[in-house]
Write a structure and sequence with these properties.
By secondary structure, the protein is α+β, with helices and mostly antiparallel strands. It has helices spanning 18-28, 65-74, 104-117, 126-130, 155-164, 193-201, 265-280, 306-313, 317-334, and strands spanning 2-7, 32-37, 41-43, 49-56, 78-81, 87-90, 121-123, 149-152, 168-173, 183-186, 206-210, 219-225, 228-229, 231-232, 235-236, 238-242, 257-259, 285-291, 294-299. Keywords: ATP-binding, Ligase, Nucleotide-binding.
Amino acid sequence: MKIAFVINQTHKEEASFTTTLLALRALQRGHDICYIGLADFVYLEEERVAAHARSVAPSPDIKDTKQLLDILRSTAKLRIEMDHIDVMWLRFDPVLDMIGRPWAATMGLQFAQLAQKQNVLVINDPHALIGAENKLYLENFPEEVRPKTMVTRSYEDVLQFFEEQDQHIILKPLKGSGGKNVFMVNKNEVKNLKQIVEVICRDGYLIAQEYLPEAQKGDIRFFLLDGEPVVVNGKYASVNRVQQAGEIRSNIHQGAKAQVAHITPEILTLVGKVAEKLKHDGMYFVGLDIVGNKIMEINVFSPGALPQASALNEEDYTTVIIENLEKKVSLNKKD
């Protein structure tokens, strides 16, 4: 099959990314892959879609993710119509283009919807992604699985929430990623609260969440595939991301350390409370961020840290994912 990975821009991809590892494993299983940037789509006529894509065929010369990216970047773009694509895998981060290219993510989702009409299997489902473009998506899930939350642009609202939560909250952009502009505010930092609200709200709404004491131990990134945990030899695809001393952000590229995650029956019960709806929504590949007994975020666009999970657990999760995708494409063609 031919898998198209839709990313922000090829030159911003890295060998350590989950997307690159998935693409490599697909090549190693004999599939063709191509990368499509959000600015590369073409609308033709009668709802036909094409894209200027960089394509790579399976080759014994491609042994690791660095070699794959080197070959990919040196490959000229060619226009490919979507009826030559079996899978379009949406792996872009809308936040990366929010300032410089605010049109990019919206257009990517619209073109993905058109590709669906050409019988291309699009994951995750672009219709559902429109409603999950920010952290408010979590509010569609049972109250017991998520922290107490407020979304606003009003300082007075935040101050009231701050008092209701015993003067200890987390503030971050409603539409954000990578740990940018994430703040913990307690009674010692209340003098900076108004300024923090103003900084976050420059780019839109903010989300205020209750502070969970378990966050001191970091969070767990837990992967779901088509509504089921990704597990190999009894080891779940997951990572315990532990922040540096004095840091509240658990993002690996912000300096957090990846450790083996201890997956308890309580965590699996928590995951089970959201899995069915995620599958119903067409969220094929998802990363849950878990702190204690709460899910802090549901990552549905381009969840990362899968290479770290594979390395720490010494298991190949990507083969399981590509095998599952092969079966899904076969069923899609039959339908």
